[in-house]
């Protein structure tokens, strides 16, 4: 870039360009990626013929002398000059402004259609930063990063060395990561990448879906990916003890005349809703159906807080009497603020701002409630039969479940056996290991009310057929009916072989086709198992 190019632009223009550039350069790296620029061009093409845009982008990429696919401010200015046609630069600026608008007003997240432009929610960023600041406050390994400023983009810079993510995974599920394997000193790109890979692998081990994200995305601090991963990690931790297998006191939520099987089959989110509604019913007020529309007026929250606040019954606890006068406040934002002040007295002002309540942000409100549950469960113990005992999830079951969830199967598998009863997830697993599934033979959900189980059973029969014929698994004595009944023995027999096939496939890919024997995998599984539960070992895959 020659200097005379730049001096042709007026000082005002230059300042404006600098501002625009800084807005695209979300992480303040001093560069924007060429793909980001291309997206902007693509969007602007209505005012400039398509061939012109392609030409410009190609010229630019060809001329990107250092081929780093990054565009510095100076390069940006020269592109702008090439495009000085008034019409074009105006629409270009409009798009830059819009991009910024999405970011500062929030309300959107995830991948937009076509994946051309990624937006993210500012509310989520603020909520997660506050949460992490508190959660890792005392961890000396994070003192160089914390506290982060929730108002700027320091989160996206702070995740780069991987330490913060590793710590958050470990916090979500105790002891997932060994202290000694995180690099904390002599940080270089290499050690940072190691940490990030460790964080991704561990996140996947606790059931987060990480198929669309790699260490370089995190290193680059791509906001939508960082927030997406953090949400999964935080949510896993928040919902961890809302599962009957892990917390038998939840049986107290059993409705009258309801059988335990039903309670076992519902997701943690639904259980949480039921927990809220149990308390609302006890308070004699209306129940809620979700964490968006129905909580906007703070009414449910006031009553919930009042029900669960400490009553000073134990010697070591101070009673917190909830001030309900906020219910009379007309302005919903102020009412939400008064409610959150009460939550703060219980040390539970987390995740939501008054605006997140009144706008019904379901993600953040779920987190707020999950944390309330975590801090003040106050479960009723009316229905608990002392003889009722629920088998806790075993280490192997959890390993299978996390494995399939990390591959991004849908719907998310909460219960290994119950959630596989229609074999939909099994079909997805087959596809992931190149066993082709004839979807014409599969009955899709939702199933008809009448005969639903017949449809599911047909699916299971087909899954077993695929396993025996297409995948050549050894499935002696396993029938569709066994999977449909949720028989652990038979389901595990199939899952072992699926996971083995998958692991061999991945390992061979890594080892450039080198054959990976059962022995290597068995050793790995053996080690994994013995770390957890001493009495489980496997000697072979033969079933
Ligand atoms: C964010 O603000 C803090 C001050 O609160 C500052 O130290 C930090 O450098 C800022 N980070 C970014 C990425 O702007
Ligand atoms: C994790 O560890 C903390 C402190 O060591 C403990 O309070 C908490 O109950 C543990 N959580 C689980 C799920 O084991
Ligand atoms: C992970 O959590 C456990 C307690 O739950 C703690 O003892 C251990 O030090 C943590 N590991 C790291 C790397 O912070
Ligand atoms: C929440 O429930 C209300 C009815 O109370 C409904 O109108 C709304 O669509 C629901 N929202 C979601 C996200 O399910
Ligand atoms: C699976 O199929 C995909 C696409 O059909 C192919 O690229 C890949 O190499 C296959 N993998 C194996 C292990 O056969
Ligand atoms: C797994 O470990 C047990 C006990 O340590 C051992 O007897 C068994 O042979 C091991 N299995 C394999 C496949 O290495």
TrEMBL record:
<dbReference type="GO" id="GO:0051639">
    <property type="term" value="P:actin filament network formation"/>
</dbReference>
<dbReference type="InterPro" id="IPR001589">
    <property type="entry name" value="Actinin_actin-bd_CS"/>
</dbReference>
<dbReference type="GO" id="GO:0005884">
    <property type="term" value="C:actin filament"/>
</dbReference>
<dbReference type="InterPro" id="IPR011992">
    <property type="entry name" value="EF-hand-dom_pair"/>
</dbReference>
<dbReference type="GO" id="GO:0005737">
    <property type="term" value="C:cytoplasm"/>
</dbReference>
<keyword id="KW-0479">Metal-binding</keyword>
<feature type="domain" description="Calponin-homology (CH)">
    <location>
        <begin position="122"/>
        <end position="238"/>
    </location>
</feature>
<feature type="domain" description="EF-hand">
    <location>
        <begin position="51"/>
        <end position="86"/>
    </location>
</feature>
<keyword id="KW-0106">Calcium</keyword>
<dbReference type="InterPro" id="IPR039959">
    <property type="entry name" value="Fimbrin/Plastin"/>
</dbReference>
<dbReference type="GO" id="GO:0005509">
    <property type="term" value="F:calcium ion binding"/>
</dbReference>
<feature type="domain" description="EF-hand">
    <location>
        <begin position="12"/>
        <end position="47"/>
    </location>
</feature>
<dbReference type="Pfam" id="PF13499">
    <property type="entry name" value="EF-hand_7"/>
</dbReference>
<dbReference type="GO" id="GO:0032432">
    <property type="term" value="C:actin filament bundle"/>
</dbReference>
<dbReference type="GO" id="GO:0051017">
    <property type="term" value="P:actin filament bundle assembly"/>
</dbReference>
<keyword id="KW-0677">Repeat</keyword>
<dbReference type="InterPro" id="IPR001715">
    <property type="entry name" value="CH_dom"/>
</dbReference>
<feature type="domain" description="Calponin-homology (CH)">
    <location>
        <begin position="394"/>
        <end position="503"/>
    </location>
</feature>
<dbReference type="Pfam" id="PF00307">
    <property type="entry name" value="CH"/>
</dbReference>
<dbReference type="GO" id="GO:0051015">
    <property type="term" value="F:actin filament binding"/>
</dbReference>
<dbReference type="InterPro" id="IPR018247">
    <property type="entry name" value="EF_Hand_1_Ca_BS"/>
</dbReference>
<keyword id="KW-0009">Actin-binding</keyword>
<dbReference type="InterPro" id="IPR002048">
    <property type="entry name" value="EF_hand_dom"/>
</dbReference>
<feature type="domain" description="Calponin-homology (CH)">
    <location>
        <begin position="266"/>
        <end position="377"/>
    </location>
</feature>
<protein>
    <recommendedName>
        <fullName>Plastin 1</fullName>
    </recommendedName>
</protein>
<dbReference type="InterPro" id="IPR036872">
    <property type="entry name" value="CH_dom_sf"/>
</dbReference>
